[in-house]
Specification:
cytoplasm, alpha/beta, BioA, pyridoxal phosphate, pyridoxal phosphate binding, 16 strands, aminotransferase, Aspartate Aminotransferase, domain 2, globular
Length: 449
């Protein structure tokens, strides 16, 4: 992995280390990032070779967003065309075609009776808005005591404060804020297995917890079918149906966080479709614009919107500066139209089959605890935390970009990935798992781990 830096590359990387704070990283940085100079299709072109490769297959879809890959001509044209009209205009007292058409599309595509769309800047803000909707709804109805939120452990909903309060309280960094965040209610993790039958004992636990706290519960929020950054765990859609019935029975709102799962990633357009149920509030993001620009959406039912509008403050108290950004909305419209113009379901099934084949060699490999695939999601779980340096080096040696976390080496490839791309990703994950396990054991043997 020796690199010969050009003077400009070396200067940029030094400036990056001194001034740029990367996600979940220290300052100044300790790990040298890869400098990407361009991207096209499913490949990232680097400013300098790494592992003998100038281009890497992107196995991450840029954190699950770039479902159509990079420099797609349809999305490029949509953004360029919107630039000719306007790049941005405030959304207070003003509206515009891209945002109106996007809202109408989202209402048409999402489960009924979701009818109203609030456009936000990011997934975390979409969750903030969703929880604010639920809290304000009950305040508007004269029931401010319904102010807490229930979720299950193993979840992740974002890094701003209210979303952090419903992330797993022990599994991530958010425990640092335990004395500051609102105190929410947590059920146990849903039993694993997308195809497993529902566990009646677990459903009974949910029923007991929701029933006991119904008087103070504003909402239940979960990631449907797939828990993403909290652990990449899959669960039965039956638990979503159980939550819908329990929330209806106890007068509690139900929120689905589909930021990671929306737009086909799990094999259905939305993960809620696996269960055939609809939430009262739904959050969307990530793949919404095909990874081109930051944009998220929070949808709600007429019941929620009308309840808020009957309150002492009859407006939703939220308004981002870049709400409804025309460039982002134009990209989202183009991305959705592009997805629906193709047999995306067949493409996701193809990727699922290819991932099962590509990851099969990991099963039974030393240090591997589990291998699981659902839709265009492939996960290898280790029996110890990933050695990031060893795993990343092994993946790039195979010509693939991966971003493991905790004990997981996983992929969410773009839907335009070929079978050859998926095979390469599989080889990279297999190599990364082996390298991480070897490094972990070597550290343990020398007492440095």
């Amino acid at each position: 992995m020796d690199r010969q830096h050009t003077p400009d590359t070396a200067r940029l990387l030094e400036l990056d280390r001194a001034h740029v704070w990367h996600p979940y990283g220290p300052m100044p940085g300790t790990a040298r990032p890869l400098l990407v100079e361009s991207a096209a299709g499913v490949r990232l072109r680097l400013a300098e070779p790494v592992g003998g490769h100038r281009e890497l297959v992107d196995g991450m879809s840029s954190w699950w967003a770039a479902i159509h890959g990079y420099r797609h001509p349809v999305l490029d044209a949509a953004v360029r065309g919107q630039l000719d009209a306007m790049s941005h205009v405030m959304f207070g007292g003003i509206t515009h075609r891209p945002a109106v058409e996007l809202a109408a599309k989202l209402v048409e595509l999402t489960p009924e009776p979701l009818q109203h769309v609030f456009l936000a800047d990011s997934g975390s803000v979409a969750v903030e808005v969703a929880l604010k909707m639920c809290l304000q709804y009950w305040r508007s109805l004269g029931r401010p005591e319904k102010h807490r939120v229930l979720t299950w452990r193993g979840g992740y909903h974002g890094d701003t404060f209210h979303p952090m309060s419903v992330c797993d309280p022990d599994g991530g960094m958010h425990h640092l804020w335990g004395g500051v965040l609102p105190r929410q209610l947590f059920a146990a993790e849903p039993p694993a297995g997308h195809d497993a039958p529902a566990d009646p004992a677990y459903v009974a636990q949910l029923a007991e917890l929701i029933g006991r706290h119904a008087g103070e519960l504003a909402a239940v929020i979960v990631e449907p079918v797939v828990q993403g950054a909290g652990g990449m765990r899959f669960h039965s859609p039956a638990y979503l149906r159980a939550l819908r019935e329990l929330c209806d029975a106890h007068d509690v709102l139900l929120v689905f966080d589909e930021i990671a799962t929306g737009f086909g990633r799990t094999g259905e357009l939305f993960a809620a479709d696996h269960a055939g149920v609809s939430p009262d509030v739904m959050c969307l993001g990530k793949a919404l614009t095909g990874g081109y620009l930051t944009l998220a959406a929070t949808l709600c039912t007429g019941r929620v919107a009308e309840g808020i509008s009957r309150g002492e403050v009859p407006v939703l108290a939220h308004g981002p500066t870049f709400m409804g950004n025309p460039l982002a909305a134009a990209a989202a419209n183009a991305s959705i139209d592009l997805l629906l113009s193709q047999d995306w379901r067949a493409e996701v099934r193809r990727i699922e089959t290819a991932l099962r084949t590509a990851l099969a060699p990991c099963a039974g490999q030393p240090g591997v605890a589990d291998v699981r695939v659902l839709g265009a999601i492939g996960v290898v779980q280790l029996d110890a935390p990933v050695d990031m340096a060893a795993a990343t080096a092994a993946a790039t040696e195979q010509g693939v970009w991966l971003r493991p976390f905790r004990d997981l080496i996983y992929t969410m490839p773009p839907f335009v990935s070929t079978d050859a791309d998926i095979a390469a990703i599989g080889r990279a994950i297999t190599a990364a798992a082996a390298a991480s396990t070897a490094a972990t054991r070597a550290h343990a043997g020398t007492g440095t781990g």
